[in-house]
Amino acid sequence: MKYLLILADGLADEPIAALGHKTPLQYAATPNIDFLAQTAYIGTARTIPQGFPPGSDVANLSVMGYDPRLYYTGRSPLEAVSMGVPMEAADLALRCNLVTLSDGAVYGERTMLDYSAGEISTQESRQLIEYLQRELGNEELGFHPGISYRHLLLWKDGHERVMDLTPPHDISGKVVGEYLPKGKDSRVLLELMEKSVALLESHPVNIERRRQGKMPAVSVWFWGQGKKPVLDSFADKYGLQGSVVAAVDLVKGLGICAGLRPVFVPGATGAVETDFAGKARAALDELLKGQDFVYMHIESPDEAGHQGNLEAKLWSIEQIDKEVVGLVCSELDRFDELRVMIMPDHPTPLSIRTHSDGMVPYMIFDKNNPVKDGIGRYDEEAAKQGRHFPAGHELMDYFIRG
After folding, report:
1. Distance of alpha carbon 234 from alpha carbon 140, whole angstroms
2. Cβ partners under 8 Å of residue 173, min gap 6
3. Alpha-carbon span 163 to 182, nearest angstrom
4. CB within 10 Å: which end of the chain, N or C, has fewer?
5. How much helix, strand and coil, in percent to the nearest 5, is found in the chain?
């Protein structure tokens, strides 16, 4: 048996009046998903355990079959693994976003205009992060460049530092003062954020971005702290050799920690616009070359949700259907046995522009075991009729073992 998991990040949503009180998934044109849904197992899962933040780190741990209550150590350490940044057990990793803030003399009185600095390019952001490392980095605190707006701060021997940090995508359009770093060790981070403004506002990269009418990356913003993770091998848990196809370091790092082989897709961005077909092709090729399992992650609908962009979310869902699921449907005959699961890790409702901890719909299509008289439709409402997994990490076992 071959297994393909298509993770559409943030896919699930709420009914929207402008769509006739349908969700984006219900409203979008998805003929290929509809085709698979006719004979698929459909249900719901809760991927965020009670008391945990509704982040992609917690949710993807659950989807991959790992109980966050046992394995969760924070988001940024997973990204550090993907980026190849060495971490010791006593180190602390923090996500370092490049963000756009409004103008203002007092940092706390500025507004979070864009948590991604206008989806700044990796080439531009690398210049900015390397500049900050030269100006602000030292033996204790080091800046490491990642992809687009997503970067890393490594705090040597910082695992016992205490701080309360807020994800920037949770405060889009809000004045940041209430959400600045808190806790007894937070002052160091706030000073770095304030100093970054003085350094970045006049950097040539931002001067050129303003000239082109783009959002400038005027500050860093820290969040998602954690210590070095340790996961059991996916191969040992399920007896399968697998790969992970992802553009974002979080999911790639999670896969690497689980022993999955990371696959690089040149056109994959981790943004709304990405190489959907390239990811699908890479995932199917991994299975055809001998891998048993592929975890394919698509960030696009989540980014659209954070932006509050209805048109972009509909477009993203339709691209996933056309370019990803469509390719899978066209190549079913190349596999003697194939089981496909489609699901989000968490909802990213357009109304709140951030993650929620609600249930997510899943769909499992088994080429050789079609469901007769099933639900026949894949969306948030229809899935409530199917089997529910209150502990989302148990869904992977159901997917693989049946």
Report:
1. 34
2. 111, 112, 113
3. 5
4. C
5. 40, 20, 40
How far is residue 60 CA from its own chain's centroid?
A: 8
Q: What is the CA radius of gyration of the chain?
A: 21
Residue range 2-73+230-401, CATH number:
3.40.720.10
Token pair in block for residue 391: 């502990």
Angle (nearest 5°) at CA 12 between 278 and 234:
60
> CA 381 to CA 371: how far, in whole Å?
19
CA–CA separation, 288 and 232 (whole Å) = 26
Confidence of residue 402 (pLDDT cuts 50, 70, 90): confident
Domain locations in the chain as residue ranges: 2-73+230-401, 83-226
Nearest by Cα to 338 from 368, 371, 362, 297: 368
**Please, which pLDDT band fits residue 274 given cuts at 50, 70 and 90?**
very high
CA–CA separation, 268 vs 261, rounded Å?
Answer: 17
Q: Where are the alpha helices (DSSP H) in 201-248?
A: 204-211, 234-238
DSSP string, 8-63: ETT-----BGGGTSB-HHHHS--HHHHHHHTTSEEEEE--S-TTS---HHHHHHHH
- The tokens for 315 are 């477009």
- At 198-250, the pLDDT tens digits run 999 999 999 999 999 999 999 999 999 999 888 999 999 999 999 999 999 99
- The residues near 106 (Cβ < 8 Å, ≥ 6 apart) are none
Nearest Cα to Cα of residue 163 among 141, 180, 185: 185
Q: What is the per-residue pLDDT across 37-91, written as a single tens digit (0 to 9) for each?
A: 999 999 999 999 999 999 999 999 999 999 999 999 999 999 999 999 999 999 9
CA gap 112, 240 in Å, rounded? 44
Task: Describe the strand order of the beta sheet including 41-45 as a list of residue ranges.
Answer: 261-263, 242-245, 293-298, 2-8, 338-343, 360-366, 41-45, 387-389
Are 308 and 257 a contacting pair, CB within 8 Å? no
Task: Report the alpha-carbon distance of residue 374 to residue 347 in Å, rounded.
Answer: 24
Model's pTM, two decimal places? 0.87
Distance of alpha carbon 117 from alpha carbon 125, whole angstroms: 9
- The Cα–Cα gap between 254 and 262 comes to 10
